[in-house]
Amino acid sequence: MPTLPFLFDILKYTISGLGVVYIAFYLFKPYLDKSESIQLLELKRTISNQTLPLRLQAYERVVLFIERVNPASLLIRLNGSADTAAELQAIIINEVRNEFQHNITQQIYVSARVWNVVKRVKDDTINMINNAVKALPPDTSALELSKVILVHLSKLEDNPYDVALGLIRQDMEELY
User: Fold this and answer.
1) Which residues in the chain come in under a pLDDT of 50?
2) Of the residues 24, 78, 88, 163, which has the maximum number of CB atoms within 10 A of its CB?
3) DSSP 3-state assignment of 141?
4) ∠90-93-95 over CA atoms, to 5°?
5) Count of alpha carbons within 13 angstroms of residue 75, beta-carbon side
6) Please, what is the Cα angle at 157 between 68 and 174, to 5 degrees?
7) How far apart are CA 129 and CA 150, in angstroms?
8) Given this model, what pLDDT does residue 126 score?
9) What pLDDT shows up at residue 1?
10) Helices marked H in the chain — which ranges?
11) Could you give the CA distance from residue 116 to residue 62 in angstroms, rounded to a whole number?
């Protein structure tokens, strides 16, 4: 029977030791949680300081993309590079696609909403050019196509390129 009191003593000390460990953990847990949250905030601040310039540059590039594919500036830039509407159509579509491919990596740094706006602007610009060409006879000059595109843009109640830029500005304001 001398082993039974020995086992009870071991059980007592084990339970009391576990109680002490539990209480110590319970007392230090808020301190550990606070320390962890401070480290997390410091990490986020460091990452933000490093990525903010990249994000701002990405927004600049997206704005530049929208300005460059705006038919009003695109037609001025490509003025005289084609004789027929079909040639101008091919040049414009190629230019829009190249601009988009050149800026495709910016989607990493901008919001999903802004990137969807960029894709929509690209697709709508290509569709507008294709629809303008379809509405004209096959032997139309490039100058006539330019006029049709600009007239179509002027008839729109809201310029889609200005609307896109407004959405990007809104997103930028939310960044700050």
Assistant:
1) none
2) 88
3) strand
4) 105
5) 18
6) 60
7) 10
8) 96
9) 57
10) 3-69, 71-77, 85-102, 112-134, 142-155, 160-175
11) 11
Phi, psi (rounded to 5 degrees) for 152: -60, -45
**Residue whose structure tokens are 């990007």:** 168
CA–CA gap between residue 130 and residue 124 (Å, rounded): 10
Paired tokens of 120: 């929509």
Q: What angle do CA 145, 75, 164 make, to 5 degrees?
A: 105
Alpha-carbon radius of gyration of the chain: 32
The first and second tokens of residue 139, run together, are 């032997």
Instruction: Compute the half-sphere exposure of residue 6: CA atoms within 13 Å on the CB side of its CA.
Output: 3
AA letter at 118? V
Q: Measured between alpha carbons, how far is 68 from 102 in angstroms, rounded to an integer?
A: 12
* Both tokens assigned to 6: 């020995």
Main-chain dihedrals φ then ψ at residue 84, nearest 5 degrees? -110, 165
Other beta carbons within 10 Å of 143: 15
Please report the pLDDT score of residue 91 as a whole number.
Answer: 93
Cα gap 123→99, rounded to integer Å: 12
Beta bridge partners of 94: none
